[in-house]
Design brief:
The structure is a single chain. The protein has about 950 residues and is α+β, with helices and mostly antiparallel strands. It is about 50% helix and about 10% strand. The protein has 43 helices and 15 strands. A five-stranded antiparallel β-sheet has the order 2-1-3-5-4, covered by helices on one side. β9 (about 605-610) and β10 (about 620-625) form a beta hairpin. α9 crosses α17 and α31 (about 725-730) packs across α37 (about 805-830). The longest helix is centred in the first third of the chain and has 32 residues, at about 270-300. The relative contact order is 0.05.
């Protein structure tokens, strides 16, 4: 029989096929997609072996896909693939051209046939000439994109694509499968005219190149810092600091410094702490300037970069005396560190300033500057640590003055000013002084002529921001506050919405847009560029709906989640909901989050799996299907639907064979957790039939009573008519989107906060359940799980909530809980809109749970102040309240505090926190009248 080949081809009956891997002859069929050598029936076995070796060498460089190109292997032998291979001949020809180059293109057959395989009917002479030029110059990204877009563009437009060039080090088309990209491009662009298609393709190319250029620049900036010297430099800095402290103690002692004199020494602000803090501020501004110079030099080059911070360099250089810098430069003659880097960053600032005054230029000057900027981040890390230890731990609060300043900071501030991100009017941290004093923001609000002091610690935030920018971030992220503000200077990069088409590469961006269309998003009739197209797709309601599905997965399979594949370090992750699929497809560039896969998973017909490596990166996605007694692998694919590694496939197949499916339970038994009294019955009743009419009527009545709260909640989405359908859209919103809706609504309507909080306390489904007969709830205790924001534990309950009236009531319950959680997130991050609304329109039932959450939180991202004394259970204000009163506002607020985001583990430390520092409140909530005014206003109707 004839051999069946890939892409619908049948080999001539007089031809035979031999597997490349084993040399085994194939009569009819063999392993799907396997690479083979085709030759005459009576071919010499020695010549067959030579042809197989030749093709094996090509496969080693271009992958198995290359065999499908029909490569001439000499003496009548050609390469091929057996039926079942993915993709089309275009994939194979492009892979072969990358290995054979133009010089070996003759092995693919006639030039015209090769061009037709790449570009179809648009393969004109100009297109062929442009393609050969691009191939000859190694511009494979342009060739791959043109081939994938050939069905959508005309010949003249393809020539423009083939002329595209990417910046050095940039590859807009990594890991691409041209046939997959072609299908995705067709789905995204076919509704537009050819000129518009070309503009969108070119715009996407520019955006991807710009994104990758930015990533390369960020990587180079990070690589420009030398942190290998950190440990040695830290020891050098500590040695110098200790020497300076000894010198201060000697200066304060009338006679020679002896052991007894040192023991008797009592440090004061004037004799020890003030000089130490002044020295620390000098180092902090020096490190800040060095980091700003490093970023500027990276962006603009040495000459232009230093010009941007020239005044700051000159000012900071002048802060040090010659003797100070000499001591920092030479170190202790008795130590082993004298040959290391200077102990203080100011030495490098002075050296750069001296060269600039000499107007030095040239390559030697640039090397001199870059060498000194390489250690800027190391100095900054050491100085930031010293700020935390000296200011936050070592200096006793009782020795601090009522106010203190720094001459070095004043001189630097006169030149540097404040950054746009850290405005004095937004600085709500308490100053580091003996007694609590208003923050800089509060002082400026009371008196516009108020000035910043060193005790406000703004300079610490500026150092943190400079460190973050030197690490490629826009700014540092506030983490906590205890005497000294703390910042994360290398925060995790913000992640976009899981379904947002990513501009990291063209295949990934196009796959993301195609995914949105497959989910039901509607493309705009007109769009000027790629961003506008993606924005319209993301704005579709189908995107939110796509993340709301919960999957039916056997408990026996879920118990295997996270297991390691046999013989590998790869781990298995099982999809439990559509959000998992959105995350996977966002990286993999496949259609696993599409409606077909979701429908199959929701119905329990398939199980979707990701295989992750040790770093958590997805190596493959797979689909499992139930078979007798267990499961079988339906399909498995790598990124962009490439074939995964053979060893991975085998290990995954072995793991799947160990799965066993659970026997389905009878649906009525899922809800019957307590056996009902024996009574005469005509047959077995489904509990759903008994419950649904009763619960439906109760839910309908509860929704009528909840109409005012419904109108308040749906107003978050801009619905002024109180349409219950809007609840579904809100329920399907991600946590981030719902949080943004709340912030935007409070920004526009701050007086709505009390109404919103009251509305979130209205739970129609919970009320409907309370209206049922207690015996019914005792018989079916799982009904209590209906209003909870968690996957329902059985099919019976999931069927029950499909009733429209019950579903609407449940949506309102869930939206209410999630809005409260959004309020908690806004409060923890110090959102300006939420803070303003709460300060202007406080209510006791909202303040109490928020304050409990703040007090129990392990860390704080915003400045906080105590409103009660340590160990005290009485909270001052009018009216006075008691923390231990079980009927008072504080004990009653615990359920709401948990809905705001308080964890049970956090609540356990409440009384410990009260003993340590009393109740804590974000400082920004308190105006000039402090806590008494806010608490009194909360009780004023």
């Amino acid at each position: 029989m004839a051999v069946l080949l890939a892409f619908g081809v049948v080999a001539d009956r007089n031809r035979r096929a031999w597997l490349v891997e084993t040399g085994e002859e194939i009569d009819h069929d063999g392993p799907e997609g396997a690479a083979v050598v085709l030759g005459d029936r009576d071919s010499d076995p020695a010549r067959v072996a030579i042809a197989c070796a030749d093709l094996a060498g090509l496969i080693e460089h271009g992958g198995t896909v290359i065999a499908g190109a029909g490569i001439d292997l000499g003496e009548g032998f050609v390469s091929a693939r057996l039926a079942g291979a993915s993709g089309d001949r275009r994939d194979a020809v492009l892979a072969a051209l990358r290995v054979l180059k133009l010089g070996g293109a003759w092995r693919l057959g006639e030039r015209t046939a090769t061009l037709v395989a790449l570009f179809g009917v648009t393969a004109t002479k100009p297109v062929g000439a442009a393609a050969e030029q691009a191939i000859g110059e190694g511009r494979w990204a342009a060739v791959l994109l043109a081939s994938a877009a050939a069905e959508l563009l005309g010949p003249e437009q393809l020539v423009r694509v083939l002329e595209l060039r990417s910046p050095e080090g940039v590859d807009p088309m990594p890991e691409v499968v041209p046939s997959v990209l072609a299908a995705n491009l067709r789905q995204v662009l076919e509704r537009y005219s050819r000129p518009r298609r070309l503009e969108l393709v070119l715009d996407l190319w520019r955006r991807v190149c710009a994104w990758q250029v930015g990533e390369l620049a960020r990587d180079r900036l990070i690589a420009s810092h030398d942190l290998t010297v950190l440990d040695a430099l830290r020891a050098r800095y500590r040695e110098y600091d200790e020497a300076e402290i000894v010198k201060l103690v000697q200066n304060s002692n009338a006679g020679p410094l002896t052991m007894v004199a040192a023991i008797r020494f009592r440090p004061t602000w004037r004799t020890l702490w003030k000089p130490s803090v002044e020295r620390l501020i000098q180092d902090a501004v020096s490190a800040t300037v060095l980091l700003r110079a490093a970023v500027a030099v990276h962006e603009l080059g040495v000459v232009a970069g230093l010009a941007r911070v020239r005044e700051e360099i000159a000012t900071v250089s002048a802060l040090y005396t010659k003797n100070e810098l000499e001591r920092a430069q030479r170190g202790d003659a008795q130590s082993d560190s004298s040959g290391l880097l200077p102990a203080r960053p100011g030495v490098h600032v002075r050296e750069i300033d001296a060269r600039l005054r000499q107007q030095a230029q040239g390559a030697a000057f640039e090397r001199f500057v870059r060498t000194r900027l390489r250690t800027a981040l190391a100095y900054a890390l050491i100085v930031a640590d010293r700020c935390r230890t000296l200011l936050g731990q070592e200096i006793p609060r009782e020795v601090l003055p009522e106010a203190w300043d720094s001459e070095a900071l004043r001189e630097w501030r006169a030149v540097a000013g404040h950054t746009a991100r850290i405005a004095p009017t937004d600085w709500h941290y308490e100053p580091l002084v003996r007694r609590g004093r208003p923050s800089l923001a509060d002082r400026l609000a009371a008196d516009a002529a108020a000035v910043e002091r060193a005790s406000d610690l703004v300079w610490i935030a500026e150092l943190a921001d400079a460190m973050a920018r030197a690490r490629g971030h826009a700014a540092a992220v506030a983490e906590g506050y205890y005497r000294v503000p703390e910042f994360d200077t290398d925060p995790a990069r913000p992640q976009p919405h899981p379904l947002t088409p990513r501009a990291e590469s063209i295949p990934l961006a196009v796959a993301g847009a195609a995914q949105l269309l497959a989910l039901g998003a509607i493309a705009p009739q007109r769009c000027r560029d790629w961003d506008e197209l993606c924005g319209a797709l993301m704005g579709s309601g189908a995107v939110a709906a796509a993340l709301s599905s919960e999957f039916e997965v056997d408990e026996s399979v879920l118990a295997r989640d996270g297991e390691v594949l046999p013989g590998t370090t790869l781990r298995v992750q099982i999809a439990r909901n559509a959000a998992h699929l959105a995350e996977w497809s966002d990286y993999m560039g496949n259609c696993i989050a599409g409606p077909w896969y979701q429908d199959q998973a929701v119905r329990g017909l398939s199980i979707l799996v990701a295989v992750r490596d040790e770093s958590g990166v997805i190596a493959a996605n797979a689909e499992l299907r139930r078979v007798a007694g267990g499961y079988a692998m339906s399909e498995i694919a790598g990124r962009f639907n490439n074939q995964p590694d053979a060893a991975l496939r085998q290990a995954f197949r072995v793991w799947v064979e160990t799965l066993r499916g659970a026997e389905p339970e009878a649906e009525p038994a899922e809800l019957d957790t307590v056996a009902p009294p024996a009574r005469a019955r005509r047959g077995t009743h489904n509990p759903v039939r008994d419950l649904e009419p009763v619960l439906r009527e109760a839910a309908r009545k509860a929704m009528v009573d909840s109409e005012p709260a419904l109108r308040t909640l749906v107003a978050l989405a801009g619905d002024t008519d109180g349409d219950p359908k809007t609840l579904t859209a809100l329920r399907r919103s991600t946590a981030d989107r719902l949080t943004r809706l709340c912030a935007d609504h409070l920004d526009a309507h701050p007086a709505a906060l009390p109404r919103l909080w009251t509305a979130t306390g209205t739970r129609p489904l919970a009320a409907a359940l309370d209206a049922l007969a207690p015996t019914l709830l005792d018989r079916y205790p799982r009904l209590r799980t209906l209003p909870t924001d968690a996957p329902l534990p059985s099919k019976v309950l999931r069927a029950l909530v499909k009733d429209p009236d019950i579903a609407t009531a449940r949506s309102m319950d869930l939206v209410a809980q999630r809005v409260r959680a959004a309020f908690g997130r806004l409060a923890r991050r110090g959102d300006r809109s939420f803070t303003h609304a709460l300060a202007q329109h406080p209510t006791a039932d909202l303040l109490c749970p928020l304050i409990l959450m703040t007090t129990c939180a392990p860390t704080h991202a915003v400045p906080v102040v105590s409103i009660s004394d340590p160990h005290a259970i009485t909270v001052p204000g009018f009216p006075v309240t008691d923390l231990s009163d079980h009927h008072g506002p504080w004990q009653s607020a615990w359920p709401a505090a948990h809905e705001l985001g308080l964890l049970d583990t956090d609540r356990e430390v409440f009384w410990t926190r009260i003993a340590t520092h009393g109740l804590l409140v974000p400082a920004a909530w308190l105006g000039s009248g402090g806590w008494p005014t806010l608490w009194s206003r909360a009780h004023t109707k």
